[in-house]
Write a structure and sequence with these properties.
395 residues; alpha/beta; Transcription Regulator spoIIAA; globular; binds S-adenosyl-L-homocysteine
């Protein structure tokens, strides 16, 4: 018997607008139990949607379908996944043993809690809700059967999100066989992906397009790549002819991988340096030393975790941009990113402007930057848009 859960009277609006989330306060949770496929009904008992339900999560229900005829079978998930693959194909992405592409982006593809990244045939999946986790075998099978070039499906959970959902971590091989090494090619660069130990599913594919855009401005410049992780922006800048690249990250293993990626791309060791440290203090240290750069990239981790964080995070973003502007040469370029979903685009621009005012620098917009298009977001869940950035030139 399918669990039926009542949406409280007057709280159906977001579902009518086809949003995929229902918060626990909008549901009659009295007898609700965790379930991968629950029928949401209005106060008169009429069908509204099918959803996965987790009473322990703030977003208690996440919609799978608004069609009463749908059932949680392989065909349902196959259709959704084929639509996600078709979207990428239409956008020009290739599935092969060479490139890296996000195949499924959770709500953006109508599959809440499900992420799948294809790294040269190794498909790394994340199941981030109890509902998504319940279908891990079906989803793994469909991906393995339908993604051209697939050699393995590997589950890599994100422990912080799973904790919020009160779910156990569950990493391991789901289908196929893992290759000894996993290297992707990205617009002329190569990156080795450590999906077992790396952040997220192993690499920040969402910055792919921005790596390309930024590299166009790197030739002949001294580049300060803050929050460099495994060297994405740094490798691309070096390949584009940067004079020198300084990578800073607090993670030593990430920087070791970054150096390996530099070598993989034939970048000589005297073209870059790696600093294990805290960006906020390193920027101040450079300012004290009067060391300057021609091009500064700020790509911090998510600084706004919850709504209550916004003020504190805004201060951190401003502080970082301000000190960066103090050490940016005249005519220098600043790439300033926020990957926080809860940081509004307009506010982020104001923060950067505020920093410019305090630094006494004029900033001209070269380009707005966003997550790459395989990180699809859907107009019915605008929360899927999270990565924003400004590429600016300072006088
Ligand atoms: N720019 C990277 C992604 C950055 S992710 C890319 O394109 O691949 C954020 C990175 O910031 C992580 O590698 C994390 O280790 C690092 N980090 C987090 N807090 C930091 C801090 N205070 N100082 C330096 N690095 C930090």
């Amino acid at each position: 018997m399918i669990q039926k859960l009542k949406v409280l009277k007057g709280r159906e609006k977001s579902l009518k607008l086809r949003h995929l989330w229902v918060f626990s306060g909008s549901l009659d949770m009295k007898n609700a139990v965790t379930s991968a496929w629950t029928e949401l009904v209005d106060s008169d008992g009429n069908f509204l949607a099918y959803a996965s339900v987790n009473p322990l999560s703030k977003i208690a229900a996440r919609v799978w379908s608004f069609d009463a005829d749908d059932a949680p079978d392989k065909e349902f998930f196959r259709k959704k996944i084929m639509s996600a693959l078709n979207f990428r194909k239409t956008c020009g992405f290739e599935f092969d043993n060479i490139h890296g592409v996000r195949l499924i982006n959770s709500e953006g593809d109508g599959l809440p809690g499900i992420i799948a990244d294809d790294y040269a045939g190794v498909i790394v999946v994340q199941f981030l809700t109890s509902g998504a986790a319940a279908y891990r075998e079906i989803i793994s099978e469909i991906l393995f059967e339908n993604v051209p070039g697939a050699v393995a499906v590997y589950e890599k959970s994100d422990s912080a999100i799973l904790e919020k959902e009160h779910l156990p971590c569950c990493d391991g091989l789901l289908s196929g066989k893992l290759p000894d090494q996993c290297i992707i090619e990205e617009n002329g660069a190569k990156f080795e992906i450590d999906f077992v130990n790396g952040h997220k599913s192993g690499f920040y594919l969402d910055q792919r397009r921005n790596r390309d855009i930024l590299s166009r401005y790197a030739a002949g410049k001294t580049v300060l790549n803050c929050f460099s992780y495994t060297g994405g922006f740094g490798v691309k800048a070096a390949l584009a002819g940067a004079k020198f690249v300084t990578n800073i990250d607090s993670s030593a293993p990430a920087l070791e991988r970054s150096a390996e990626n530099m070598a993989l791309n034939g970048i000589a060791e005297n073209c870059y340096e790696d600093i294990v440290g805290d960006v906020f203090s390193m920027l101040r240290k450079f300012r004290a030393e009067k060391r300057k750069f021609d091009f500064i990239i700020l790509d911090p981790p998510k600084l706004v975790q919850g709504r209550g964080d916004l003020k504190r995070a805004a201060k951190a973003y401003k502080d970082m941009a301000l000190v960066a502007l103090h050490i940016l040469n005249p005519g220098g370029i600043l790439a300033n990113f926020s990957c926080s979903r809860l940081m509004p685009k307009e506010l982020f621009q104001k923060i950067t402007f505020d920093a410019a005012l305090d630094a006494g620098r004029n900033l001209r917009m070269i380009e707005f930057l966003e997550q790459d298009i395989d990180h699809a977001w859907n107009l019915n869940v605008p929360e899927g848009f999270y990565l924003k950035g400004h590429l600016l030139m300072a006088d």
